[in-house]
Each structure stands twice: as C-alpha cells, then as structure tokens.
Specification:
Number of helices: 21
Radius of gyration: 37 Å
Strand content: under 5%
Order of helices and strands: HHHHHHHHHHHHHHHHHHHHH
Helix content: over 70%
CATH topology of the domain at 224-311: Serine Threonine Protein Phosphatase 5, Tetratricopeptide repeat
CATH architecture of the domain at 224-311: Alpha Horseshoe
Distance between the termini: 146 Å
CATH superfamily of the domain at 224-311: Tetratricopeptide repeat domain
Largest sheet: none
Amino acid sequence: MKRLLLTSLIIGMIITAGGCAPTATNGKDAMKAKWEKATSFAKLPAAQQQYSQGRYAEALKTVNQCLDADPNFAQARLLSGKIMLALGQKQKAAEEIERAVKIDSKLDEGYFLLGLGAEDKKDYKKACELYAKASGIDAANVNYMLGQVRVLCHGDDYAGAGAVLESSMEAMPASVELKFAAAQFYERQGRFDEAISMYSQARSLETEDMQIAESMAYCLILMNKWGEAALLLEEVIAKGSGEQKNDLRELAAMCYMNCGQYGKAIRAYSKLAVTDRGNVQAWLRMGQAALGINDAQRAYACSQKAIELQADYADAMVLAGCSQYTLGSYTQAIENFHRSAADKKVGAFSWMMIGKCYQKKGMAQNAAAAFEKAKTYAEPELMEYMGKIMVSGQ
C-alpha cells in the first residue's frame, strides 16, 4: 500500500512537472514577443528622425529592427519604403510601400508615394487613381489633390483637372496653395483674367509670399500689362537678394521700357549697372531708355560703356549712331552706322539711318544710295516702314 502510494505520488509529480513546462515556455515566448513588439513601436520615432536628418543607413538599420520584431508593422514598412526611395532603390521602395498599404489600407501617404511612382513611369491613369485614394483618406491634404490635377493635365484631361480644383477650393476656400495652383492652371490654358483673379485672392491671404507676387507678374507680362508687372516685380526685388534680384531688376526695367516709362527704366538699369557693372545689356538698355526721354548725351555715354565691354557689339554702335543723330552730329553718326551695317540683324536699319544722316546733310544722292542698300538687307515686313521714312526725309 505504501509502495503504491509512493508510486502514485511520483507519477503525479512527473505529470505535474511535465504539464507545467510547456505552459511556462509559452508564457515566456508570449512575453518576449510582446516585449519585442513594444520596443519596435518605441524605435520607430528614432528611425523617423534619422530619416528626416538624411542619415539613411542608420534609419534603415533601425527600421529593420522594428520589422524584425513585427513584420506587419505598417508604419515601419512605409518608412522602409521611403528610405529606399531616398537611396534611389525605386523597385524595392515600391514593394515595401505596397506591403505597407496591404497591411493598413488607411495609409494615405503610402498611396500618394505609389502615385508618384506611377507618375514617374508616365502611367497617369494609375497615378490619378492612387492620388484619389490618398485624397479619399485625407481630403484636407492639398498635395494629394494637386497630384490628381497634375496627372489629369498630363493626360490632357483639363476639364477633369479643373473640376478637381474647383471642388477642392469649395471645400477649402482659405487654402493659399489651392488658389495658387488654380492660378497657374488657368494661366497654362491662356485664361489670364481668371489666373490674375486667383493670384490676387492668394495674395490677399498671404501678403508676404513673394513667389505668388512674382508668378502674378509673369502672368501680367503675358497679358502685356507691363506697368502692373513692373510694380509687382519692384515689390519682389525689395524683399529679394543675390543674383535673382538682378534678374528681376532687369525684367522690371524691360517692362518699364515696353510701357514707355523710360525714366523708371533708367533708374532700374542704373541700379543693375551698380551691382553688375559687366552687364553689357544693362548699359545698352539704359542708353535706349535715355534716348526715349531725349537724353542723347546720356544715351551716347551708355553706348560707349557697352562698346568698352564688348567692342564688336553692333547694337551698341547703333545706339551710338542714334545718339549722335539726335545731337545733330551726322558725320560721326554715319561712321558708327557704317560699323554696324555689316551686321545682319541691324544692317537694314543702319543703312536706313545712314541715308537719313545724308538727307540731313543735304546729300540726296548719297542718301538715295544708302536707302537702296538698306532694301537689300531688310526683311519684307520692314519695307513699308522704311519706305515711309525715305519719302518723308525725317
């Protein structure tokens, strides 16, 4: 009896020990898995920071640790794809991002990135579908909507693009980005009045955004509204810096020239010449503007500065000749026009002016010969104009 009891006790202990062992092991495994999953979540912010700082190798190592712990961690999978994109591994990036959106169908950024990939491959239909999917998840993200507009335009579906823009502006009436995008959309279609309206609305919402002001100025130039464009460019110049400032000043000066505001053009070119003294075009245009306000002495001085910078500059020789003609120095003017007469672009004009100089000197035969010479250079569209000048003798 004692022996039987002892045997039963031993068997019971064995059974108990055997039954408890798997339970303890399973518990430890579950705890370990839970811990690894928790730490994978904790490591993601570090990986995101490394990515944002351009430390892609470190970011990839950290995000892989997250994925080793939890292969179905959608945000980590998405970040892995973004890192691959940054490293130029487009195919691997697409695979990672596709896995991410399969795990979590609400990853709007994932669909957007896949849309960019499709757009890069010129698969505009697929790109539009992906952008629309992203926008359906986060309708407030302007980039998703702009992606749709962009690819619809690439596919020549301007009506569709316009509809997306208009519905988005109704939903987000205070979005500067949308109004700016709409302005550029209308401008590309030649709908300049609508474009200007959108630029104006965008400016009223963001008065300090000089990109909007500059873009609006370019649109005004396309409409030949030179004076308004120049005023906007001056505003941008006042807040700009560096090389861009010089480029815009030259553009503003051109606008003043085209609307006959020669005094303002001279001031703009003078400022440009101070910061960029080697700009031969600035000296030429300043001289032309000076001639526009009958300041022939200044025009001649500018022509000489331009010739000093570029000795064979035919346009500057023409400016010198025109200045001397205005001053009544016809002999000197003839010399300059002879120097520029061989140039194909200004040859006809040069010979015409030589003829006019001879007229002023009372040398009719020489004038007639010069006018005939001008005809051999002139383009057909210049003939009527030149004929009037030759007849008038002005």
